[in-house]
Known about the structure:
The protein is about 20% helix and about 35% strand. The protein has helices at about 25-30, 120-125, 165-175, 180-185, 215, 220-235; strands spanning about 1-10, 40, 50-60, 70-75, 90-100, 105-110, 130-135, 145-150, 155, 190-200, 200-210, 245-250, 255-264. The chain has about 260 residues and is an alpha/beta fold. The protein is built from 6 helices and 13 strands. It is globular. The chain folds into 2 domains: about 1-90, no CATH class; about 95-264, no CATH class.
Amino acid sequence: MKTIANQIPSGTRLDLHGERNTKEALDLYAAQYVGKRMPLNQQHDMSLKSPGYIENMRVVPDEESPGDWALIGDVYCEEESLEIPVGGFSISFLEVLRRGQSQDIFQVYLPYPYYNDSELIDEVFEEGFITVGKWAKKAADPALTALVGGSIVFFIKPVWEDLYKTQIAPHIYKFFAGKFKKLQEKNITANFIQYVCYNNYEIQVLLIPSPGKEEHCFSVEQTNAAMEFVQSYLTSQGPAAVLASKMYLKFDDEANCFVHFRTD
């Protein structure tokens, strides 16, 4: 594994999109990973294998640009795992742009340049249902993928119950059968994050659909089956097992279901 010390994945300088990160945003990002490793993704595509991680992230003055700040960290990368050549490393930020007054069910984070499209934001937003934000992926050519996060945390129990199928999955399908069409018109696909809690430990479950088949992938039957697999996987771990903080499931067209392919 190759080690690259003091790499700069982000900073407050003007970026390729003509935008700047704030020092406050960098501080908050670094604080998330104190004592932790940040998994690397390839071109911000979470359907690809992680080639490594960054650790020891901190915010320091930018020596080459007085007045600016840099987020730096130590990169550990398995170059043989890279499926796409890289010229550097970057991170992504989530920021809420429009939040309703009542509690929402989803947060939809749009990719560049669409988080600057006020008309699209208005079309996707729905009071009491959807908050809209931006998913700032600091790359020259960010993938047109939105990130949809569910606000309802699903509590995993030792014995599977159909609560997910009856109380959460229908909301997911409602979004992908309705509001998501506004994103499809822009050729935007979406990954979905479901937060689950098991033994007082919160885990992010990321569901990655087949592009163009999102409505099928996020049907009640498919999402319920995915969460049933997650329940089975987590409850099969021994009491001394160190649980992953993130699980990734990708839709397999041949198997016609989500399959587990990565944990971080």
